[in-house]
């Protein structure tokens, strides 16, 4: 299927081993993905040492406390404006509007501007932006990811090359808006399908607002960290939806896992994302390859374990952002964006779907075929 002999791994211990053992496994993404994202991105074929360097240089501007505090105000302002606008538009494709919103947010975070160009134009555009930014910086810096990447240097004084900056931007722009938009949509659909969970999540958000100092305007990062129930809602959505249904690795040498020898050069598809589920009245139940179950079934079956049970999965079962040294570097930013949107939606809005029985498409990402056609209504 992927141009190489491949093996699918679902057992928790094996998933953990493949994702954390950098001695025997390396990234094994299909060549088409590497061409699209770029050879110098985090998911590319760069060496372990080079990946470690790039991650160290770019981690703080994405997931650091100061960075998240800076970005959240822009996210919050755009979420509030978008919901108000959608409530007055009548019929909308909810998923399409969410993707536009998340793209606008991620573009601002990284370059303080907006664009909807295709990959073949993005590289040329980004190169011109990098060149222009180098000139603008003579008059003073800007507080965005572009500036951070132009400034950062390693312990040897080595800075990021233009190719590294561009490939990292393309990777983040793609991952940073597609996943957030889709997961937000599914979280809202699941919440509305389970009224008690909706009310529990809403009560938590109302308590946060009620306990806020009278002089405070808008959310604080501390308040987002207090959203324990909503965090579980997001995690449960990530488990059920499995946005990135596999993580690709390739064996660097013959290696034995769980009694099976994986030959050198074989692709290893890690599918540990959500394979364990449970309900309050049952023991943990293994459902191998929950996404594949969904392809031959339907979303109702996939969501059968809502509401949240509080079950703690074994290491290697819940991997929405991967694991090991190559864990998704934007995981905190993604959850922050989703949390802010759900906060305001739960407090003031509801979604009326026009085609609640609409069939679900599963490739490249699972979504209703009508992109969740409906109407946003203000309820307070």
TrEMBL record:
Keyword check for Iron: yes
Listed InterPro entries: Cyt_P450, Cyt_P450_CS, Cyt_P450_E_grp-I, Cyt_P450_sf
Membrane topology, from the record: Single-pass membrane protein
Similarity annotation: Belongs to the cytochrome P450 family.
Gene3D superfamilies: Cytochrome P450
GO MF annotation, one: ent-kaurenoic acid monooxygenase activity
A Gene Ontology biological process term: sterol metabolic process
Listed GO CC annotations: endoplasmic reticulum; membrane
Pfam families in UniProt: p450
UniProt source species: Actinidia rufa
Cofactors required: heme
Residue numbers binding heme: 328
Lyase listed as a keyword: no
Subcellular localization: Membrane
SUPFAM superfamilies registered for this protein in UniProt: Cytochrome P450
Alphabetized UniProt keyword annotations: Heme, Iron, Membrane, Metal-binding, Monooxygenase, Oxidoreductase, Transmembrane, Transmembrane helix
The protein's name: Ent-kaurenoic acid hydroxylase 2
């Amino acid at each position: 299927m992927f141009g190489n002999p491949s093996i699918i791994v679902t057992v928790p211990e094996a998933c953990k081993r493949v994702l954390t053992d950098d001695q025997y496994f390396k990234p094994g993404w299909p060549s088409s993905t590497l061409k699209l994202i770029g050879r110098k991105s985090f998911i590319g074929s760069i060496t372990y040492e080079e990946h470690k360097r790039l991650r160290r240089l770019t981690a703080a501007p994405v997931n650091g406390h100061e960075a998240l505090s800076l970005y959240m105000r822009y996210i919050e302002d755009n979420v509030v404006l978008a919901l108000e606008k959608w409530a007055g538009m009548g019929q909308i494709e909810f998923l399409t509007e969410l993707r536009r919103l998340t793209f606008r947010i991620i573009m601002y975070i990284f370059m303080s501007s907006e664009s909807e160009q295709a990959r073949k134009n993005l590289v040329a555009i980004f190169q011109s932006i990098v060149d222009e930014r180098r000139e603008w910086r003579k008059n003073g810096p800007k507080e965005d990811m572009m500036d951070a990447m132009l400034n950062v240097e390693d312990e040897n004084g080595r800075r990021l090359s233009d190719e590294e900056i561009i490939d990292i931007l393309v990777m983040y722009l793609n991952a940073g808006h597609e996943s957030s938009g889709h997961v937000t949509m599914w979280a809202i659909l699941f919440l509305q399908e389970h009224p008690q969970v909706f009310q529990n999540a809403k009560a938590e958000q109302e308590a946060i607002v009620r306990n806020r100092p009278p002089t405070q305007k808008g959310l604080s990062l501390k308040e987002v960290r207090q959203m324990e129930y909503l965090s579980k809602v997001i995690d449960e959505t990530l488990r059920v939806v499995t946005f990135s249904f596999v993580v690709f690795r390739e064996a660097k040498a013959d290696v034995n896992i769980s009694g099976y020898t994986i030959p050198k050069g074989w692709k290893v598809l890690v599918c540990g994302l959500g394979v364990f589920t449970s309900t309050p009245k049952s023991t943990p139940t293994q459902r191998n390859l929950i996404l594949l179950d969904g392809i031959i079934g339907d979303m109702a079956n996939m969501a059968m374990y809502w509401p949240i049970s509080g079950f703690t999965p074994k290491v290697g079962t819940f991997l929405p952002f991967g694991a090991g040294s190559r864990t998704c570097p934007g995981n905190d930013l993604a959850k922050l964006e989703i949390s802010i949107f759900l906060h305001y939606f739960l407090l003031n809005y509801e979604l009326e779907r026009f085609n609640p029985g609409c069939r679900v498409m599963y490739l490249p990402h699972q979504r209703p075929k009508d992109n969740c056609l409906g109407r946003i209504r203000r309820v307070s």
